[in-house]
Design goal:
single chain; alpha/beta; DHBP synthase; 2 domains; eleven-stranded mixed beta sheet; 11 helices; binds threonylcarbamoyladenylate; binds magnesium ion
Length: 353
């Protein structure tokens, strides 16, 4: 299959545009279209068509028990795909939709088990990206879309990343430039008595609690090592994810201690002829002796760090480093989402210095 790429830039996009009509045709015919959202690129198919969903799993190499998120263009479209909309969900939708938040509901019968990984619940998101919304509207169906990476690789934040992983496997890539947020949406389960975060993202626990009061966090998210007794409520969270090819370790501690420790490790590996990559902050970038040193951004700007994270992980693969050392980006806000991705990328290897 030849994968076509269409560039769609500018704010003035509509579901009546030629690109939207062409992409919608592919979706309605059961094909796959990768498209930008404000979080990461999604790999879209008709979410009500089990056969189309199967193609997503095949293109990504994704285990079939890992459910897909259904994307809608307006809140009103939700009534077709869920059993009911609890009050907390209405409040959260009011506050954060369209935007980088996904909610898990009891599914309506029309949603096939092929898209929910066999679950009786369905994850729904209303993205804010104008290209995503125009595509969904033009298609006239909810679009099932996981991140458009090959299973296990960092999520794509540029159309080039999608091309790396999906070229020849899907009909169409809509190139809308870089994704703003850079991390996948916050997932909130609203089926229980208290809303629970199943995956941290740009919408933080504090932001959710401002709207609906107490919010819980799936214990798996904050685990510092893999625990066979903890079963994540979002099935996808159990898989090794975001993994760069090189062996990666995170170092946590006072900034100067982390710098000297990483430099000491780097010198040791240089003596063995190894190539070392470092992921750090703007403040410390000049202090490292690694072969490739990427700053994720200023410590004061967590949004910048989130935005750059997946791109940097992919860059390390391009540079063929043998080892990656990363600073820790722990914090109460976006730090939970950033560290959730980093710790998985590092296979839970984190050292206190
Ligand atoms: O920002 C995002 O959410 C992006 C863009 C494309 O919208 N999508 C995305 O999809 O990250 P994906 O498939 O890479 O991650 C979806 C996560 C998986 O961990 C999956 O297990 C979980 O959502 N999930 C989906 N349906 C679920 C359900 N019914 N119950 C619990 N978790 C669910
Ligand atoms: Mg994903």
């Amino acid at each position: 299959m030849i994968t076509k790429i269409i560039n769609v830039t500018g704010n003035e996009v509509s579901s009546n545009d030629d690109w939207a009509k062409e992409a919608a045709q592919v979706i309605r015919a059961g094909g796959l279209v990768a498209f930008p959202t404000e979080t990461v690129y999604g790999l879209g198919a008709n979410g009500l068509d089990e056969e189309a969903a199967k193609k997503i799993y095949a293109a990504k190499g994704r285990p079939s028990d890992n459910p897909l998120i259904l994307h809608i263009s307006e809140f009103s479209e939700i009534k077709d795909i869920v059993k009911s909309v609890p009050d907390v969900a209405k409040k959260l939708a009011d506050a954060f939709w369209p935007g980088p938040m996904t909610m898990v509901f009891e599914k309506a019968d029309i949603v096939p088990y092929g898209t929910t990984g066999g679950l009786d619940t369905v994850a729904v998101r209303c993205p804010s990206h104008s290209v995503a919304r125009a595509l969904i509207k033009a298609s006239g169906v909810p679009i099932a879309a996981p991140s458009a990476n090959a299973s296990g690789r960092p999520s794509p934040t540029l159309a080039e990343h999608v091309k790396e992983d999906m070229d020849g496997k899907i009909e169409l890539i809509i190139d809308g430039g870089a994704c703003d947020v850079g991390l996948e949406s916050t997932i909130v389960d609203v089926t229980g008595p208290v809303p629970m975060i199943l995956r941290p993202g740009y919408i933080t626990k504090a932001m959710l609690e401002k709207v609906v009061g107490k919010v819980e966090v799936d214990p798996v998210i904050v685990a510092t090592k893999p625990d066979p007794n903890l079963k994540p409520k979002a099935p996808g969270m159990k898989y090794r994810h975001y993994a760069p090819k090189a062996d990666m370790t995170i170092f946590e501690g006072k900034s100067e201690d982390v710098v000297s420790r990483i430099n000491a490790e780097t010198e040791r590996l240089h003596a063995e002829g190894k190539k070392v990559g470092v992921m750090c902050s703007e403040e410390t970038k000049a202090m490292y002796k690694g072969d490739v040193v990427f700053s994720a951004g200023k410590r004061s700007s967590e949004a910048e760090v989130a935005h750059n994270l997946f791109n940097i992980l992919r860059e390390f693969d391009e540079c063929n480093v043998d080892y990656i050392f990363a600073e820790s980006f722990e914090s109460d806000d976006l730090g939970m989402a950033i560290m959730n991705r980093l710790i998985k990328a590092a296979g839970y290897k984190k050292t206190k210095v």
